[in-house]
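Deviation from plan, reported transparently: histidyl-adenosine monophosphate complex.
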Amino acid sequence: MPSFQTTPGTRDILPPDAVRWRSFVEEFDAIVSLAGFQHIVVPMFEDLGVFQRLGDATDVVTKEMYDFVDKGGRHVALRPEQTAGVCRSFAQHRPLPPWKVWYSGPNFRYERAQHGRYRQFDQVGVEALGSDDPLLDVEVIALAVDFFQKLGLRNVVLNINSLGDSGDRARYVEALSQYFQARIGELSPESVATLERNPLRVLDSKRDSEQAVVAQAPFISGFLSDEAASHFAQVKQGLDALGIAYVVNERLVRGLDYYCRTTFEFQSTALESAQTAVGGGGRYDGLVEDLGGPATPGIGFAIGLDRTLLACDAEQVFPHPSTKADVFVIDTTGGLQALQLCQQFRTAGFASERAYGGRAMKAQMKAADKSGATYAVIIGTDELSQGVATVKSMVDGYQEEIPLDSVVEHVAAQLRKVSS
Ligand code: HAM
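Because the crystal trials were delayed, the predicted structure below was used instead.
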């Protein structure tokens, strides 16, 4: 018989981790909903052309796309991120701006799988379409900051930069290209190849031998138009007004090409691996138009769920939510009593569990312990003949006999007392 394992870069999220994932998304929902963002679900695969807008020269498009021709002959791809899908959706449905949406779910990139970098990974994110107000940038960044705080993370650094308008960016890329061409002898063969495709990405080089040449490269700030520079100044002023700490990092170029003006990234200093970016985003004022819609500015971010949870583990915050039962019903009379009582407890809103397969009292007691239940309700043949159940507190061992027909009410009242 063949035996199967998850393919590289994919993982099973087993219980109880999956519960933690869900509450991560719920916390995010709670924060962004307060700021008027509404949930959107975009398809997991789209026409390849939608994602080609992420940039002809980016790794995401050239190397990492999960694309295929479907049975109808359409060239489609699994989404590597959700911003392009949201903008395609805006262009298709033309909602009234400002349009503020949030999303969660898996994305797919054929990356070199390693700790914190997967081929299927989850994100939560927001997109706000229809305004280029710099204070909207601040509001969007503040949502991510609030979320990291809500999780309890203390070691997340916000890096910001401005990539200017498309003309500024083009002039900067040209200047960078000329600069690196002039010092090409100092570049590794990999960076020379990157230079051909996308000079901006040479700035990302982590190779020691290239740090000097990268450090002396021109900075984007020298190429910003007055409008872009003023926009960036207002973003920084807004962040200051909210007391949000940030580092201006002029080497922050991001891995997708649709960005202009404000870009930002959140780095966890608690993570030791190379994968320290827990989230990132920025403005993409030309993307909706690129996808066939009206000229519409936009800004958003995505937070990597997998990686942010690794940061939570490293900082020992955002523990797994409790999955304990409220009550465990032990029944040695055949199981029908447990079946009925569990049902009644669940109808009353309490988590109830039981053992299956007519197991002995001792084994059922052990299972009750393991379930973490606050109370055990025990029904043996003696109890059944007397029409009672033994209610045992699993916290202090205190036990009492309660008439079978009022045991649910009795235990429910006790549980309400405990939780209030
Ligand atoms: P991104 O920087 O490509 O931006 O991804 C955002 C976050 O997703 C990263 O900071 C990281 O935490 C996580 N992530 C990315 N790739 C992987 C991977 N292979 N494995 C695990 N986690 C990963 C975007 O996706 C943009 N759509 C963000 C955005 C929204 N910009 C504007 N609006």
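The first strand starts at residue 38 and ends at 39. We consider this an acceptable substitute for the interim report.
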